[in-house]
Amino acid sequence: MNGKRQAASGKRQAASGKRQAASGKRQAASGKRQAASGKRQAASGKRQRC
């Protein structure tokens, strides 16, 4: 009986872990995008100075 309960909680934790990993990937992708736009802005800023 106790084992079943533990297995259920384990499944729940695994599901939440997958969800967190997916959100982490999404955040990493958005971070890359922001970094790329930052590089672009820096490049355009250099151009304006010259």
Automatic annotation (TrEMBL):
Species in which this protein is naturally found: Burkholderia mallei (strain NCTC 10229)
Domain of life: Bacteria
Taxonomic lineage of the native organism: Bacteria, Pseudomonadati, Pseudomonadota, Betaproteobacteria, Burkholderiales
Region feature Disordered, mapped onto this chain: 1-50
InterPro entries in UniProt: Serralysin-like_metalloprot_C
Name of the protein: 6-phosphofructokinase
